[in-house]
Amino acid sequence: MENDPKCLHSILRNLNINVSLKDIKQPTMESYLAIYKGFMEMCFLIKAPVLDEIPPSSIANFSEDCIKNQADSFKFLQLYSLINFMYSIMSAEYSMTEIFNPPRKLFFKQISSLINFARFLFDELNEYGKIQTENKALMENLNEIKKECDEYANKIDNLQTEAKQKKPLIEATKKRIAALKENQNLLRQARNKLADKNEIAKKEEQNLISDKNDLTEKVSSFKKKMDLYEMLLIKSPDRLKRDMEKNEARIIDLEKLSKAKKCENQELRKDIFERERFVEMANGVRDAFENFFNNEVQKANSKLKEIEKIQDEITSISFELKELENMIDLLSKNKKELEHQIQNQTLELKQKISKFKNEEEDISNKIKEILNRIQQTEDEVARIDEETSISIKKTQEMMAISFKQMEICKREEKIAEAKYKAEEIYLLDCQKETLDKVEEVKKAQDKMSHFLDKALEEYTKNGTFNFENLNI
């Protein structure tokens, strides 16, 4: 397709080279010179439009002379490449005669080679423009990265100020946690003391229950004896007298027993006094934790119902005792006194048992309340520890992320600076090479123009070229 005369004619017209189709089909020396001259003018008219669109920020490191001479240097570089191409054709395969007076077979091949070279130059220009657009995009990306780095620096400053502001709050929370731990230790010690006292009270309760069982057994045995006395009273009055004497002796023994019981009661009163002091101390603790007592009221009511049942049983026992008292009244007045003493002792024992039960309930309620309070304080301490640990972890994570982002930004900035410096060095090297080659191009241009002028003079004078008279 490239060797088609019509195709070559259209390509040359697009390149603003005025050659007719007849000149291509039947070429003359004027047509050859016009084509070569057109290519040279085209090379001088070549301009890199992308150079005018470079942002000022990217050329800040270049001098003004470098920027002004860059377009002209680019033109000379293209001309040097074209002349170098022509000399390579001439020295490698063709002579000067074959270039300026070629046979018909070589004409289309040479024109095709020049057209391919022109296309190569346009491709190079496009590639150079792409590189410049990529550099522009990289500069914009670098500016965006710098903005992001500034934003991250502001965020880091804000985080540091927040950390400084939260530092006294963290210290206050640490002090509060330490105080709560001390209170927790004190509450644990109080709980252990109350548990020990509760065990002592349980042991005393068991002793009182055993005493109560002994008394109930004695009452039952006494009832049996009263029944036996009633039977004997009806059948044998003599024996009744003897039994009365025995009963009087028994009453004396019971009086001794009552005295002993009174001594025991005095000891119990002392114990009760100590328990009352303990109750007063427990009341002080209860006043401190009275907001947490409402949950145990229902349990206390259920226990009170159980106590009422026990009291009903005790009342039934008292009714039985009253019946025994009536029977003893029939026997003797001394028997009545004995019954009154027994009744008083039973009432005192009931009161003691009820007091002990109430004390036990109070102690158990207080222990439960204290345990609930300890559990709440432990939960609060755990919650505060968790909140502080979460806040510390968040601040540490944010600081780590910010430091990583700063490192990434620094790395990207270093990479961009390295790329920018490498491009700057490359452009400076190209500029130096261009300036070095400009002199060679000027020399080659002078030689070529001198050669063409001589060739035109020779052609106008003689109508043909005499290459012996031409010195290259």
From TrEMBL:
Q: Does the keyword Cell division apply?
A: yes
The UniProt entry's GO biological process terms, in alphabetical order, are: cell division
In the UniProt record, does the keyword Cell cycle occur? Answer: yes
Locations listed in the record? Chromosome, Centromere
> Can you say what this protein is called?
Kinetochore Nuf2
Which UniProt key words apply to this protein? Cell cycle, Cell division, Centromere, Chromosome, Coiled coil, Mitosis
- Family stated for the protein in its record: Belongs to the NUF2 family.
- Principal location: nucleus
**GO cellular component assignments:** Ndc80 complex
Q: Which residues form a coiled coil?
A: 128-218, 251-387
The record's InterPro entries line, in alphabetical order, gives:
Kinetochore_Nuf2_N (IPR005549), Nuf2_N_sf (IPR038275)
Q: Where is the Kinetochore protein Nuf2 N-terminal domain?
A: 5-135
